[in-house]
Amino acid sequence: MKKRIISISIYVLPLPLILASLFIGPSQSATPEAIFRAIFYDTGNVSLIHSVLLDVRLPRILLTFLVGGSLAISGCSFQAIFRNPLTDSYILGLSSGAAFGAALALAYSFLPVQLSAFLFGLLAVGLSYYMARKNKNVSIVSLILAGIIVSGIFTALLTIVQFFSDPFRLQSIVHWTMGNLHNASWEKLESSVIPITAGVFILFIFRWRLNVLALGDDEARTVGINPERDQLIVLIAATLASSSAVAAAGIIGLYGLIVPHIVRMLNGPDNRQSIPLNFLFGGAFLLIIDDISRTIAGFELPIGVFTMLIGAPFFIFLMKKTNIGWNS
Amino acid sequence: MPCFQSCRHSEDRSDKPATYIEVIDFRGREINLDKPATRIICLIESALSGIYMLKAGDNVIGVPSEIYNGPTAEQYALLDDRIRDKKLPSPGNWDFVSIENIVALQPDLVIIWASQTESIASIESHGIPVYAVFLKSFTDIYKEIKDFGLLTGTSQRADSLIKYTEDEIIKLESAPQSSVVKKSSVYFIWPQGLLETAGTTSTVNDLIELAGAKNCCPIPQEHAVINKENLLDWNPDIIVMWFNALQNPDDIIASTDLKYLNAVRNMQVYELPSAFLCDMWTLKFAYTTKLLAKWCYPSAYADLNTDEEKRKMLFELYGEKGGNLLK
């Protein structure tokens, strides 16, 4: 019963949260009172309030929700197919590849930053998969090891780009790698929404197969599932969603690891339910964190700082309160 | 005027050679040379500019690596044939330093940022004198040039450069804008992005105030990352971009989410024309201030010809080589 209430709350939460977030921000001109006056009495600085709400807050809120949701759902899928609770969406070198792509674009302006981050993120995951593939088989251990190696290679390449960058560009690279939602815009949202939606949709379709894949390859085969093919499809979909999120918002560390665990603690391990719940909870939780970060200071701090400062204590709290057998 | 009592020739000391030089750097550390430096490694781009202004460029044997690939590479190639031909070694920059390369070059002075503490300790452990720089204000820029004058035996030239710059600033301060009641508010954009600006404890803030305007960002930081809502609230009259290879004023004017800003509505968005010409950590800050003053108060500075000012500034600061920089 308790789980059902939590589950329903997570389904219901996003819409009111998105609406409430529209009233939160540092602007002294677009306070909740000024927004109400502008909407109902058409008084005050209506054009400015209109711009703050629709051009600044709304794209940021929607992008934050999509980014949080896609990182969480990807992390959950990776944990299922790798049968490893310590993996996240960055395990196959995605974040290092994307960071290198972004750094290259910031330093040499040869491609738009978002596109370059996206392409190099995909390239890193593709390389990991290619390196792990042997005799048409891909073992989970080889894949994770290959991911660590590829991640190391791209981190080294990133260091080289940083070495040759001037102070201004180096600072841009560092800011990008710390996660940045303050640059959200309709353009960024438009370029992210299709790949994220496509990836999330495929993962949603495959949610029940994740339960079978999580049991192991032999068990999957006994119920007529081709584990290699399904793992590859899930891998591609999760990578598509998370690389688009990283390309739009930079690297938000450990979010794809923490949120699936939180959802599992709240609702249990069944992927049929936790896949949609991860997307909704991941989006809503990142939005709450961003709302706090937008109001706590007069200037912007990287979102990655807040996800750890707020998400980690919440995670520890849940871990202490629930008993899911990690200590055994 | 800054106080330079700590920096002096000490001819009065009988046990020291007549050419003995004693200077206190920005760490408060004393640097002693028996004679003016003739083998200088300078790992700071703005400081290197100062050395060329002092006409001591021939004494430079090592330069920062960004001189060859940064936004000022073209200008330094015009100032020094060795840089043009890529013959001057670059043993480091503001971040990374090759101690082995520095030691091998056998310098008699290394100029480096004061924040590079580990590199400084390593260089000094080899007995090489290090002058560490940390610039917080325009007064610091005067001190730096004065000290470089002493260290390179070009004190007279340093004094004349400082006097020229101070006179230019005095002229600007006595100009008509000083009587303007409502000051123009300025939003400054660093090249990292639209929302990266200079706060009230920055050199840019000093520059804006020197131009008779007001920095619209009230955050007490050197470099502040702000929310777009802040920018809309501040509604600046003028937007000034640091030299930026990725964006130009038209991009700002065309962006729909900034269309309510006074600066965008009135098309008062400007870009500083060159990272070299507008380097505000050198004596060229006077020229940048003039540009800013003209953009903020166009009618008060109607007679100010910025092209002519640029020409004069380059000749005053770089001598005949300044002509090359105009090409």
Give a description of the structure.
The complex is a heterodimer of chains A (328) and B (327). Chain A has 328 residues and is mainly α. Chain A is built from 15 helices and two strands. Chain A has a single domain (58-321), classed as Orthogonal Bundle (ABC transporter involved in vitamin B12 uptake, BtuC). Chain A has a two-stranded antiparallel ribbon. In chain A, a hairpin with a 2-residue loop joins strand 1 and strand 2. The mean pLDDT of chain A is 88. Chain B is of the alpha/beta class and 327 residues long. Chain B folds into two domains: 8-170, Nitrogenase molybdenum iron protein domain (Rossmann fold, 3-Layer(aba) Sandwich), CATH 3.40.50; 179-299, Nitrogenase molybdenum iron protein domain (Rossmann fold), CATH 3.40.50.1980. Chain B has helices at 45-53, 66-69, 73-79, 81-84, 99-105, 117-125, 138-152, 155-173, 203-210, 228-234, 249-254, 262-265, 285-296, 306-318, 321-326, and strands spanning 8-9, 21-24, 30-33, 40-42, 60-62, 109-113, 130-133, 185-189, 196-198, 214-215, 223-225, 238-241, 269-271. In chain B, strands 5-4-6-7 form a four-stranded parallel β-sheet, sandwiched between helices. In chain B, strands 10-8-12-13 form a four-stranded parallel β-sheet. Chain B has a three-stranded antiparallel β-sheet with strand order 1-2-3, covered by helices on one side. The model of chain B is unreliable at 1-8 (pLDDT under 50).
